[in-house]
Structure formats: C-alpha cells, structure tokens
Design brief:
The complex is a heterodimer. By secondary structure, chain A is mainly alpha-helical. Chain A has helices spanning 2-6, 12-37, 43-49, 51-64, 72-96, 101-126, 132-139, 147-176, 178-183, 188-227, 233-257, 263-281, 287-311, 319-327, 339-360, 365-368, 383-393. The termini of chain A are far apart. By secondary structure, chain B is mainly alpha-helical. Chain B has one domain (3-135, 155-302): ABC transporter involved in vitamin B12 uptake, BtuC, CATH 1.10.3470. In chain B, 74% of the residues lie in helices and 0% in strands. Chain B is built from 13 helices and no strands. Chain B is globular, with a radius of gyration of 20 Å. The mean pLDDT of chain B is 85. Classes of the chains: A mainly alpha, B mainly alpha. Chains A and B meet through helix 6, helix 7, helix 10 and helix 12 of A and helix 2, helix 3, helix 4, helix 5 and helix 11 of B.
C-alpha cells in the first residue's frame, strides 16, 4: 500500500497531493534556509498565523459578491494580503519601537490569529454555511484537492524557486553578514523584505496542504537538518530543498496509504525524523561523531600519559590507561612494560624534551604554537630540525655505573 | 442589565477571563524583558499533545490528569529545546521551532487516531477555548454570591484560575528582587550569589503553569496574546519595572473585559444574532491596545535612538 503510494499508484487525488507536497516541501526548505541562516526562523511563525484573517475576509468578500466563498485563488490572495500586512506591522514594531523582534513576532502572531478566529466565528454565525473548508486551513486538508489547486501550488512553488535562483547571492550575503552587505551598498532592508516575501509566498501556497500552524515546521526543520551535513551555504540550500521535498513526498504518501493519517502532521513528523537522524548521525556536527571524537581524544591522552609514566618508572593505577597500554601490547598483564613499551616510552619522553627546547626557542615560535601535549613532533618539524634539537639535548647524562 | 441575568451568564466568564489574562501577563513582563517572549507561544502549542496523551491514559476528560499531562508536555518541550540547542549547536529560535511544531503535529496525529467523538476534545477547542460556556447556572442574582448552596456549583475553572493567579503573583512577589536583578543584569546577579539558571527555569515553569491553567479555561490563543501584548504595551508607557507591571495588569484586565463585552454584545448591537469568539476578541482588543501604545506611548522609542526615526 505504501509502495503504491510512493509510486503514485493510489489514484488521481493521492498523486496530485504527493506531487504538490513534494514541490511545496522543496520550495519551503530552500526559502526557509535563508531565514534560518539570518537567525530569524520564527518570523515564519508570525507570517503563517497572520494569514488567517485574510482567509476569513476573502471568504466574506467573495460571498457578498455572490461568488463561491471557497475559491482557492481568492482565499490565497486574501491570505497573502493579510500576511503582508502582518509582516509590515512586525517590521514597524521592531524598527520604530523599543520592542525586540521576538516580542513583535508574538504580538503579530497572536493578534492576527485572534482576529482570524473572530472572523471564522462570524462566518459560522452568519449562516452562510459551506464554510467547512475554512477550518481546513488551520491544519491543512488534502481530501478534496482539485487539479486547479495543485496547479496553483506548483506554480507558486516554481515562482518562488525562480526568484531564489535569481537572488541567491545577495540574499546569502545578507543572511551571513548584514553589516558587510550594507557596506557593499546592498539594500539590506529590501532584501530582508524579499526573503520575508518568499516565506510568505510559500506559506500561502502551503496553507491548503499542511495548514498554517504546521507550515512553520516545513520552513524551519529542513534548513536545520541540512546545516548538520555541510559547512557550505550553497550546499545547505540544496540539501534543505531535498530534505523538504523528500519529507513532504514521503509524508503525503504515508498519509494516503492508510485512513486517519492527516497529511500535514505526518509530513512534519517525517521531516522531524530526518532531523533527528541528522542530529545523531551526521558526520562532524552530529552527536555520535562528537562522542567518537571525544573518546578518540581521551584514548590519546591516556596513552600518552601512560607512556610518560612508564618512561619515568612511575606506577600506573588508572584502569583505562592500563587497559589501553595492554591492548597496544606495551605492558604485560602484570603492569610491567614490554620491550616495545619501553621503546615507545623512551621516545615519548625524548619527544617531550624536544618540545621543551622547541618551546623555549624563539626561532621555533610558529612550531611551538602548535604544541598541545599530544602532537607528534615529526608532523611539525623536518628531520633536519629534529636532529639539530637532538644535538642540543646531547647524550644520556649521569648514567649510573 | 439586571443582576439576575449578569451574574449567572457573564460574571464567571468575565472573571475567569480577567484572572487568566493577568496570570499570563505577570510572568510575561519578565519573559519580554529577557527576550524569551515566544516561550508562551511554544508552550501553548505543546500543551495539545500533553492533553491528548492524558486523555489516552485515563480515558476521560478530567481536569487533574489533563493539567498534569499539559504541564508534563511543557516541561518535556523545554528540556527538548535545550537539548537540541546544545547538542546540535542551533540558535534558540530555530530549536524552538523544530520542537514545538513537531510536538503539535504529534498531538494532532494522536487526536485523529483516537476516537474522541464521544468527548469534547478537538483542535479547535484547544485553540479558542470555550470561555462563553463557563456559566454559573445556579446563580439567581447578586445575592447568590453569599449563597453557599449556589457557590458549590461555580464552574471549577474559576477557583482554579484564581489560585493560579495567586500562585504566580506570590512567586513574583517572593522573588521580586532576584528576578529584577537577574532580568536586567545576569552577570551582576550571579556575583551576588543568585542562582540565575534555576531562577530562569522557575520563571519558565511558572509561565507554563499559568499557560496550562489558562489554556484549560480559555484556549491557547489568549495565552499567547496575554503573555506578550499587555507587557509589550506597558513597556511603551514607562521605564520602571514596577510601573510596567502595573500597566500590564491594567491592560490585561481591560482587554479581557472589553473583549468579552465586544464579543458577547457587539454583534447584537450591529444587528447580528449570535456572539463571536470571546477568546479571539480578547486577543484582538489586546492588539489594538498595543497598537495605540506603540503609536502614542511616552516611552515607545529605544533609549538613545534619535527622535522621529
């Protein structure tokens, strides 16, 4: 059943939803990345909640004009207008008053959403009926999706992608370093507004599939996921787009394969799963990688300290150190050093002495800066230099008869 | 309007609305100054899965387990956000966005998977609450306030919300000095020996308790609005924390009263038959108050910002 859904074999409606969702997820992941790198991820929360009054007002206007209140294009237009107003309010509050951005986000979010709820109850009490579709905008509803709806979603996502491709360089510059961008003469404020406009477009387009409360997840989670895998901004954008598209496609397919699995929440949970996997297993930035790195470092420190202790004839009590030395064949089970162990220990002690000279010699200042107690001296100095230092150390002194 | 009509139908919802608004606005003042204003938003989203899980475990809609479930979910969310932030080295806003949307999605999914047709539990209810239905049918007029028999049938949300408000106010009064110092200068607070990390956590937990209790009575939308709008408006009125808290209480009360009245009677004045959502209207009124304060408040500009910018 799930395989059928993944291969688009579950009928017309499911196919429309899957393809539409994948496009939307890709566009959301990509435009969300800029927002995330700009450290303004939660602005999307304000934008998405601010769409609600627009939906309500558009419905009322269309009904009073004698049309069908549920025309998707009309509703989306209304939601875009009110999201835009919300965005302007938020910007005005942060620029012209003492409120910080988070407070402005919260204020716009709650007030617009509250007003939207008032409008929804007005629609209910007006008795115009046929309003059932509007609640679907809160959590998304894909049951009655039409081809025209899918076309709107596809068109909107494609448009957003095109704008991003055209404007990616200035947007990335502003996301990373707004002061530098301003010094370069870029209109930072306008580019910020463009970013917000893209987020707004994705939100509006996504209302139908995932709903306004959960679209925030599609804008934030793929970008955060992608950040784990690379340190290069262009790759973050691409990976975020892929992660968003894949989780939306998978989520839509899973939700089509069984009853009672609402599309929006499933998409969000799939993308969270991707996020959790990345958090744990990503190379470099992942938790597992960090744990391994820490263990490797710990072993090197223990081994090094153990060798120095052997060289100076001190007893070793630390169990981990003993175990590591034994496993490397440097000490016997009773804690006495083997021949190999004695050789390595002598080398470790000699290296320590070499480092001491290097660090006290201003001529080797650059090399001395690399000293961290673990680095092999051969990786820093040439054989000639080491020989030179060895001459200065000289042979064994005060050898007992 | 006579007492015979006002007391049973409007007095209790009005009082619950006021208590909820003030209980959220009080900790909201500190959250706003600490740049944690969106904690209220996150908490009110994650309360949904907590309530659904509590319902699944107990199989009934009872206040106690639901409150416990919601509080548990709020604490879980705070821990998860912190874990994602530290383990993944992600900025707090994005970490918050990841966790609260996921938990909310989980809540919606659980809700769709369980059969809740026999009980009153759905997403809409969680969002806008049901302030209008918290009526006190046993009251016959003002005299009922002294009638023990009638008082026994007060909606249980009223004493619960009043207790929550008292608890929040007591917490703030008790830790006033420490809260004030650590909000404005955390480093200085630490040199005085104040455990700022514990205090910050306690503040968030207090906010969560207020949010959960208010959520039970009035829905999540008021919770978010009351955490932010009245303190933000109060911030435009004064530079003193004491005065700011006073203003925020006034604004919260005003929003609750005006919002309730406009929602209940406004449509009737306009000739419509039914009332609109009180929760939504209270949030809207608080927004209007904030807009007025942001435009005309005496302290609306950033300190040091040039005038007229």
């Amino acid at each position: 059943m799930l395989l059928d859904a993944l291969l688009l074999q579950l009928g017309y409606n499911a196919t429309l939803v899957s393809v539409g969702a994948a496009l939307l997820g890709g566009a959301a992941g990509i435009s969300g990345t800029f927002l995330f790198l700009r450290k303004r991820a939660l602005v999307s929360d304000a934008v998405s909640h601010a769409t609600l009054p627009g939906v309500g007002l558009a419905f009322l206007v269309m009904v009073f004009l004698g049309g069908d209140g549920r025309n998707l294009a009309g509703l989306l237009f209304g939601s875009a207008v009110s999201a835009g107003i919300g965005l302007l309010c938020m910007n005005w509050l942060t620029r012209n008053t003492r409120l910080a951005e988070d407070a402005a986000i919260g204020a716009v979010l709650s007030v617009f959403f509250g007003f939207g709820i008032v409008l929804l109850t007005v629609i209910q009490t007006l008795g115009v009926g046929r309003q059932a579709g509007l609640e679907g905008f809160l959590l998304g509803s894909t049951a009655g999706m039409l081809l025209s709806d899918a076309m709107i979603i596809a068109g909107g996502s494609a448009l957003a992608l095109m704008v991003i491709i055209l404007m990616r360089r200035p947007m990335m510059l502003v996301a990373f370093d707004p002061e530098y961008a301003a010094a370069r003469g870029l209109p930072v404020h306008h580019i910020d507004m463009l970013m917000m406009g893209l987020v707004m477009a994705v939100t509006v387009v996504g209302l139908k599939i995932v709903g306004l409360i959960l679209i925030v997840a599609l804008l934030i989670i793929p970008a955060v996921t992608a950040r784990f895998w690379t340190e290069r901004s262009d790759r973050v954008v691409v990976i975020a787009g892929l992660a968003g598209g894949a989780s939306a496609y998978l989520g839509a397919a899973i939700s089509a394969s069984a009853p009672n699995l609402p599309t929006g929440p499933i998409i969000v949970l799939v993308s969270f799963l991707l996020f959790a996997l990345s958090l744990l297993f990503a190379p470099n930035r992942g938790v597992l990688a960090a744990v391994l790195r820490h263990q490797r470092f710990q072993r090197r420190v223990h081994l090094r300290q153990g060798l120095l202790a052997l060289a100076q004839g001190q007893p070793i009590y630390e169990p981990l150190t003993l175990r590591l030395l034994r496993r490397a064949g440097l000490v016997r089970a009773d804690g006495v050093a083997t021949d190999k162990g004695r050789a390595r220990a002598a080398k470790a002690l000699r290296d320590e002495k070499r480092w001491e000279l290097v660090r006290s010699d201003l001529a080797h200042e650059a090399a001395a800066a690399l000293y961290d107690g673990l680095r092999e001296i051969e990786t820093v100095l040439t054989p000639d230099q080491i020989r030179d230092i060895d001459c200065r150390i000289g042979g064994p002194q005060e050898v007992p008869a | 309007m006579s007492g015979a009509e006002f007391v049973p139908l409007s007095l209790t919802p009005l009082l619950i609305g006021i208590f909820a608004a003030v209980a959220c606005a009080l900790p909201g003042n500190f959250l706003l100054l600490r740049r944690q204003a969106l904690i209220g938003d996150a908490i009110s989203h994650v309360v949904l899965p907590g309530i659904v899980v509590a319902f699944l475990l107990t199989g009934a809609i009872a206040a106690g387990p639901m409150l416990l479930g919601a509080a548990g979910a709020a604490v879980t969310a705070v821990i998860l956000i912190e874990a994602v932030r530290r383990l993944g080295r992600i900025e707090p806003g994005a970490a918050m966005g990841v966790i609260f949307t996921t938990m909310f999605a989980g809540g919606v999914l659980l809700l769709e998977q369980t059969d809740t047709s026999t009980v009153h539990l759905d997403v809409e209810h969680a969002l806008y609450g049901n302030l209008e239905s918290l009526i006190w049918l046993d009251a016959t007029g003002w005299s009922s306030l002294w009638d023990l028999e009638a008082l026994r049938y007060l909606p249980p949300e009223l004493p619960r919300m009043a207790l929550t408000l008292l608890g929040v106010a007591a917490f703030i009064a008790l830790f006033w000095r420490a809260l004030k110092i650590s909000t404005f200068d955390e480093g200085f607070a630490r040199t005085l020996g104040i455990r700022t990390d514990l205090l910050g956590l306690a503040l968030v937990i207090m906010a969560a308790i207020a949010a959960v209790a208010a959520f039970d009575a009035v829905g999540s939308i008021i919770v978010i609005a009351m955490f932010i709008c009245p303190p933000a408006a109060a911030r435009m009125m004064t530079n003193r924390l004491e005065a700011q808290i006073g203003w925020s209480v006034v604004f919260a009360t005003l929003s609750a009263v005006l919002g309730y009245v406009l929602a209940g009677y406004g449509p009737l004045w306009l000739g419509a038959a039914d009332a609109v959502s009180a929760a939504g209207m209270i949030a809207t009124v608080s927004g209007v108050i904030l807009a007025i304060a942001a435009r005309f408040g005496p302290c609306r500009h950033r300190a040091g910002a040039p005038a007229g910018v």
